[in-house]
Structure to design on (270 residues):
């Protein structure tokens, strides 16, 4: 059966973002565009192995790799010999996206080793795929929003390159901010010893794991103090502090002011 969504035949420049696909191709799959395309192409490799060739370089696409090909870049791409290539792809116009989230290279490849980030990118791609096929009201806006999420995640990773195990630890801290979690549990979840994780985390972020967790809690508490009428005690518990005095000490450490003083200061500003 003929495909209706092929990354080799479609240009979506006029609508900004129109089409996406989910392919699993044998090693006979290949496409060549000596003159490039009008729009950008982004691929996310789920399994197997693919490749891209441009005048500047040749790169392989492995599981967890996101590849961006700039409009107008001559290229060839396909499935590596003896392999299958399982990947998601989408076309979009760079004119519709903030320049700050687009890489300044004809072709760019980023490996996403962190499991949480992989899942996030996969879910965003699947939303793009579904919305671009269903084409309900505001489908184009929804596609652009999901695509922008992927591009922002990649831009964030370009600016702050962290070990994938440190990234995963930060994700787990943010997800379980209100629940007690030990360094031993965190270390087991990323396959390191507690001492190695603690050293790697401090080396990468400049903070201890406990300081990073407390910083997340205090920043969230500050937002709640500024934008809600809840009491400081309720907020302290909500962000994960069991001991109220410990919350006050940590708040003063991070914000250089008491919770009540911070709330009063923010209300006076507004």
């Amino acid at each position: 059966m003929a495909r209706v969504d092929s990354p080799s035949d479609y240009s979506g420049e006029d609508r900004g973002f129109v089409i996406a696909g989910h392919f699993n191709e044998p090693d006979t799959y290949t496409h060549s565009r000596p003159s490039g395309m009008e729009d950008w192409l982004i691929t996310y490799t789920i399994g197997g192995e693919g490749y891209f060739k441009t005048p500047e370089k040749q790169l392989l696409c492995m599981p967890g790799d996101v590849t961006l090909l700039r409009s107008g870049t001559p290229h060839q791409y396909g499935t590596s010999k003896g392999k299958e290539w399982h990947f998601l792809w989408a076309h979009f116009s760079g004119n519709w996206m903030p320049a700050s989230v687009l890489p300044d290279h004809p072709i760019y490849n980023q490996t996403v080793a962190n499991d949480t980030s992989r899942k996030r990118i996969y879910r965003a791609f699947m939303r793009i795929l579904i919305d671009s096929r269903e084409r309900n009201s505001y489908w184009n806006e929804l596609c652009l929003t999901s695509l922008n999420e992927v591009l922002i995640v990649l831009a964030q990773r370009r600016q702050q390159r962290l070990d994938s195990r440190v990234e995963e630890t930060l994700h787990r801290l943010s997800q379980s901010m209100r629940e007690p979690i030990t360094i031993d549990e965190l270390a087991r979840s990323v396959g390191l010893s507690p001492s190695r994780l603690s050293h790697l985390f401090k080396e990468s972020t400049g903070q201890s794991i406990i300081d990073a967790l407390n910083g997340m809690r205090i920043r969230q508490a500050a937002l709640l103090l500024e934008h809600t009428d809840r009491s400081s005690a309720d907020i302290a518990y909500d962000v994960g502090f069991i001991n109220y005095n410990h919350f006050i000490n940590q708040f003063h450490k991070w914000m250089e002011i008491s919770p009540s003083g911070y709330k009063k200061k923010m209300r006076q500003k507004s």
Remarks:
- Residues 139-159 form the longest helix (21 residues).
